[in-house]
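User: Please run a holo structure prediction.
Assistant: Happy to. Please share the sequence and the ligand.
User: Here you go; the ligand is 2-acetamido-2-deoxy-beta-D-glucopyranose.
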Amino acid sequence: MDTLDSPPTPTTLLLSFSQIVIAMETWTVLSICLVSLVGGAYTKDNTWGGLYPRESVSREVRSLDGLWNFRLSPLQDPDKGFREEWYSQPLSKTGSVISMAVPSSYNDVTQDKALRDHIGWAWYDRTFFVPTRWQTDKLRVVLRLGSAHYNSIVYLNGLSLTSHEGGHLPIMAEITSGLVYGRENLITVAINNTLTPETIPQGSITYHDNPTRYPPGYFTQSYNFDFTNYAGLHRTVSIYTTPVTYIDDILVTT
Ligand SMILES: *[C@@H]1O[C@H](CO)[C@@H](O)[C@H](O)[C@H]1NC(C)=O
């Protein structure tokens, strides 16, 4: 049996495997807590993993890697970006931004202690174009973020597109209907690196409400693993096309 090292095109897959299951994407409704943060548009929880996209006769891949705009949420006002709807327009219009390399761990970029030690939401955005040919050819377009550590909410052109919990697996969403073809598209990603006893890896937040020793609202994050809780868009971000009829999943029975 062939390995999947270089994935065959959908046509050859059809010939090689006897059983192909085209599964409907299954989305689960997001917990009320996150929806209340997002406000406005409905966000689907992302449960759809996916293989790394490679160019083929039916798949065109565009990279969204490079320098994105970036801003931290204030430590003492973690929900500011949601309240002020930072996702509804370019981040550079709602405050100061720095350039952030994607993929990278933002903790490692610059010499700023606040960036290295940040706990809470961080915001990324960038603009991109898609060829109008994709619209005339009626191609399906998928967004894939290789990983975002830890919790993330993804917006496209100001609307929430998907959300994801977990820092090490791909986040994927079909974006065909949310794209604009003759103009710039805006993608915004809010990422929260807060660890809890339920996250992998685990961590906890301690609020030090002793005004004689700490500033008001001061909190720290602790964990028992021996590496930094690196955060951010850790892997490649790309968009790719598929035909309208596509393989979502395969099941090989031997
Ligand atoms: C986001 O970060 C804040 C800390 O600034 C934390 O209190 C909150 O629980 C986090 N939310 C999520 C969904 O991770």
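The radius of gyration is 20 Å.
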